[in-house]
Write a structure and sequence with these properties.
α1 packs across α8. The strands form nine sheets. The protein has a six-stranded antiparallel sheet, with no helix packed on it. By secondary structure, it is an alpha/beta fold. It is built from nine helices and 36 strands. Bound molecules: flavin-adenine dinucleotide (FAD) and FE2/S2 (inorganic) cluster. FE2/S2 (inorganic) cluster binds at residues 52, 54-57, 71, 73-74, 76, 89-90.
């Protein structure tokens, strides 16, 4: 995940020469031990926090484009003029400071808490009176928050089948599973946030029917809720394997907080865990369980974990990291049966274990959309504005099949789902904005973060610059001469620079 970097650089209260502040970059210093960035915007000097409000990344290591600073870790965007959080995964604005220019120096003075312009309530427009959002995960949460950030004053109903308020799902296979993230880090907001924002959270309420004609939702208890416009953000459900013994209580999956807690309860006194599947979640879980001192074995049919996504060089490097940390791999092997205490593989070998964790992919949750008659293929079909086949109903996140660079795509990434939620929110209010952000994900293994931008499916050439083993590389994926995607370890700014080339 990375550690929030401590403040460094000159004390900006003492003044720094205006000439030292780059006209199109940022200047990093500190104020009272806080990292602060100075930046020229439209001929005026501004000072904003240098610590990302998401996980605390040093924004000075990010990329400035126009009036916007892009975070190096998970690519949140902030306006330098007033610190406004513009794009997920950060939702809190950056603190700002007052700056005085005197005798060729810039002095940072007190905090400027008036810098953030509050959204004015939208009046006299044709906003809907009531917006419903089905799914209180990444996309649904981001959409609800964005509606208020845009000044929407009508009713927002956010329905979640999960009993928990929106939480940091990516953390479940990382620090939370490793035991290094306390439970209070997991919710995305404090308990009062939703009431303060006027977002009605309906938790533990699965919506089971959608009547698009009468614009009505029905939940599992038969309660009905009207809406004027609707966002579907139901996410995905983890696959299980129809194999003998795979319905045992110690066969776990990892999608929800409840899944993570059930897994943690299972392994509380365990010594050995077998993971079936060597995808991102399986391998992150392997790293987290090794951090707990458990013996971990991974079974997967492919010859190289994630080779099809990352290419051979990065995949081999990932495999090396896991092996060096004591994970045993059974590659090219399939599971056949589980007897509660041992997994039997297709070569007859038996792997003893106290618990089995399945990381064998997910299926988009399409039941509601399909039953309601929306166009559905391997996802809920949406156009560039994320509108479904039914006007007024939008879809976002893991369940949405959207156009990306001329091809239909469905992407299962956190930031991507949140960004789609944010664009869907604008479009629920009539913005008609196309979603063009390139897919982005990050993954964390033994203190190293790999970040990936674009969609590399069908790549036929990989260019590796640098050395993954030294935590310093940029890998680019091409089909012919077309750049499809890029991955980076330790080269965050270079990855951010490729973003325009990978937009939809
Ligand atoms: C353990 C784990 C680690 C991950 N790590 C990363 C990572 O490091 N980087 C990354 O980019 N991505 C990561 N992901 C993927 C990322 O979390 C997902 O892509 C993202 O959460 C998708 O957002 P979503 O809103 O589409 O769905 P979700 O976040 O799954 O939210 C959908 C919600 O809708 C609810 N729901 C479904 N149907 C209904 C209904 N009918 N009525 C009411 N509620 C309903 C579900 O209960 C769920 O809470 C990870 C995923 C997991 C499980
Ligand atoms: S730390 Fe900046 S986006 Fe995550």
């Amino acid at each position: 995940m990375g550690d929030a970097t401590p403040a460094s650089g000159p004390d900006l209260r003492q003044g720094v020469p205006l000439a030292d502040i780059p006209p199109e970059g940022v200047f990093a210093g500190q104020v009272d031990g806080e990292p602060v960035l100075l930046a020229w915007v439209d001929g005026r000097m501004h000072a904003v926090s240098g610590r990302c409000s998401h996980y605390g990344a040093p924004l000075a290591e990010g990329l400035r484009r126009g009036d916007v600073i892009h975070c190096p870790w998970h690519h949140a965007c902030f306006r330098l003029r007033d610190g406004a959080a513009l794009k997920a995964p950060a939702f809190a604005d950056l603190p700002c400071w007052q700056v005085e220019e005197r005798d060729g120096l810039a002095y940072v003075r007190g905090r400027d808490d008036d810098a953030h312009p509050r959204p004015r309530a939208r009046r006299g427009r044709e906003d809907p009176e009531r917006i419903a959002i089905v799914g209180a995960g990444a996309a649904g949460y981001a959409a609800a928050v964005q509606l208020r950030a845009l000044g929407y004053a009508g009713a927002i109903d956010l329905f979640g089948a999960d009993p928990e308020p929106p939480y940091d799902r990516p953390n479940l296979s990382k620090d939370y599973l490793a035991g290094t993230a306390p439970a209070e880090w997991i919710p995305l907001q404090g308990p009062d946030f939703y009431a303060e924002q006027g977002i009605r959270l309906h938790l533990g309420r699965a919506i089971t029917a959608l009547d698009q004609h009468w614009r009505q939702l029905t939940d599992a208890h038969g309660d009905k809720f009207g809406y004027e416009r609707l966002l579907l953000a139901p996410g995905a459900v983890p696959n299980r394997l129809p194999l003998p013994g795979f319905d045992a209580a110690n066969v776990c999956v990892l999608r929800s907080l409840a899944d993570a807690d059930a897994l943690l309860a299972r392994i509380a006194h365990a010594r050995r865990v077998v993971l079936v599947g060597a995808g991102f979640i399986g391998l992150e879980a392997a790293a987290a369980l090794r951090a707990r001192g458990l013996a971990v074995e991974v079974v997967a049919p492919e010859p190289l974990p994630l080779g099809g996504v990352l290419g051979e060089v990065l995949a081999r490097d990932l495999l090396r990291r896991h092996r060096e940390h004591g994970v045993a791999f059974h590659l090219g092997r399939k599971p056949q049966a589980f007897d509660g205490g041992a997994l039997v593989l297709d070569d007859g070998s038996r792997l003893d274990c106290d618990a089995l964790l399945l990381g064998v992919g997910v299926k988009p949750d399409l039941a509601l959309a399909r039953a309601a008659g929306l166009a559905v293929e391997d996802g809920i079909v949406v156009d560039a504005t994320l509108q479904t086949s039914v006007p007024g109903i939008y879809a976002a996140g893991d369940a949405a099949r959207f156009p990306y660079r001329g091809q239909p795509a469905r992407v299962e990434h956190w930031v991507h789902a949140q960004r789609q939620g944010q664009v869907a929110a604008a479009n629920l209010l009539g913005a008609g904005q196309a979603f063009t952000d390139p897919p982005f994900f990050w993954t964390h293994h033994y203190g190293t973060d790999l970040r990936y931008l674009g969609l590399g499916r069908g790549f036929d050439r990989v260019e590796v610059d640098g050395d993954p083993a030294a935590d310093d590389c940029l890998v680019r994926y091409f089909r012919g001469d077309t750049l499809l995607a890029a991955a980076a370890i330790g080269r965050d700014r270079a990855l951010l620079e490729l973003e325009p080339a990978l937009r939809g």
